[in-house]
């Protein structure tokens, strides 16, 4: 199967993201050559039933808690090596003990030192629904996500065209997976609302400068329709930050680097979960 174009011509892609996508398409080509799409789809459809990502978040918010998607990642382009030693099983157990609602696990290797094995290990260690955090650009990756045990995938609107986003969402829905669609600006939000998913993530990190600013969520979250579930992402470190996001309309948050840098991960998660 031929991989799609590396960068869609109608997307203004920052240099860092362009490099990541170029590497990702090459990776996908190599992995399809090793495991054909039909074989990966068969593995996905034979995988155990997904855990309900959306219901878990709704339940947490309904009980007055913060819907915390706690992230497991070893490194990032902006933060370098974040945690060493890095133990996905211990982290998953700590997040569960700290009251996290869902997990997010990085599987991208070149830029985040992630692996599908990290997701598999985390899922076996707890009963929380898990988001596969990666740069999803091809149907093969969606089937791979389900085969490895992911319950939700991330679609970054800055990285894909509307047509690709719709195709990947359709495949995810056919596998009973949730989709978290991520936006960074108003144009991306408008595009994202054309999808069916209820989960709309607003990333406070500027893709061009890699700096974070909570004002991004404060600007965009109020524009998200009431039938969707906003998720504030990046730059959230303190209970006060959580309250800022809740005041903007997002009681669900995705937090990674801050938690990964804490000695007591369970306590750090608990502090955010009960910030309201």
From TrEMBL:
- Reactions catalysed according to its record: 1-(2-carboxyphenylamino)-1-deoxy-D-ribulose 5-phosphate + H(+) = (1S,2R)-1-C-(indol-3-yl)glycerol 3-phosphate + CO2 + H2O
Domain of life per record: Bacteria
Q: Which UniProt keywords apply?
A: Amino-acid biosynthesis, Aromatic amino acid biosynthesis, Decarboxylase, Lyase, Tryptophan biosynthesis
HAMAP family, per the entry: IGPS_B
- Give the similarity note: Belongs to the TrpC family.
Decide whether keyword Lyase is in the record: yes
Protein name listed in UniProt? Indole-3-glycerol phosphate synthase
The kind of enzyme this is, by top-level EC class, is lyase
In short, the EC number is 4.1.1.48
Pathway(s) where this gene product acts: Amino-acid biosynthesis; L-tryptophan biosynthesis; L-tryptophan from chorismate: step 4/5
Molecular function, one GO term: indole-3-glycerol-phosphate synthase activity
UniProt lists the gene as: trpC
Specify the Indole-3-glycerol phosphate synthase domain's residue ranges. 17-272
């Amino acid at each position: 199967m031929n991989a799609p174009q590396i960068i869609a011509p109608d997307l203004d892609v920052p240099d860092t993201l362009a490099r990541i996508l170029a590497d990702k398409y090459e990776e996908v080509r190599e992995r399809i050559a090793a495991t054909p799409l039909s074989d990966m789809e068969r593995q996905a459809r034979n995988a155990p039933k997904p855990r309900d990502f959306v219901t878990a978040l709704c339940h947490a918010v309904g009980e007055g808690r913060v819907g915390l998607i706690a992230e497991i990642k070893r490194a990032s382009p902006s933060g370098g090596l974040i945690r060493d030693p890095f133990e996905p099983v211990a982290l998953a157990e700590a997040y569960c003990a700290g009251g996290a609602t869902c997990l997010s696990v990085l599987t991208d290797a070149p830029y985040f030192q992630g692996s599908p094995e990290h997701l598999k290990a985390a899922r076996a260690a707890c009963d929380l629904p898990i988001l596969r955090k990666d740069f999803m650009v091809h149907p093969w990756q969606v089937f791979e996500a389900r085969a490895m045990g992911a319950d939700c995938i991330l679609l970054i609107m800055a990285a894909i065209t509307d047509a690709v986003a719709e195709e990947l969402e359709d495949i995810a829905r056919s596998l009973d997976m949730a989709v978290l669609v991520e936006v960074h600006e108003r144009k991306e939000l408008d595009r994202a609302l054309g999808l069916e998913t209820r989960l709309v993530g607003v990333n406070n990190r500027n893709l061009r400068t890699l700096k974070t600013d909570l004002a991004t969520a404060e600007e965009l979250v109020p524009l998200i329709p009431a039938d969707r579930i906003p998720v504030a992402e990046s730059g959230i470190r303190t209970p006060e930050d959580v309250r800022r996001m809740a005041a903007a309309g997002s009681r669900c948050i995705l937090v990674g680097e801050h938690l990964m840098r804490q000695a007591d991960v369970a306590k750090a998660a608990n502090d955010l979960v009960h910030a309201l």
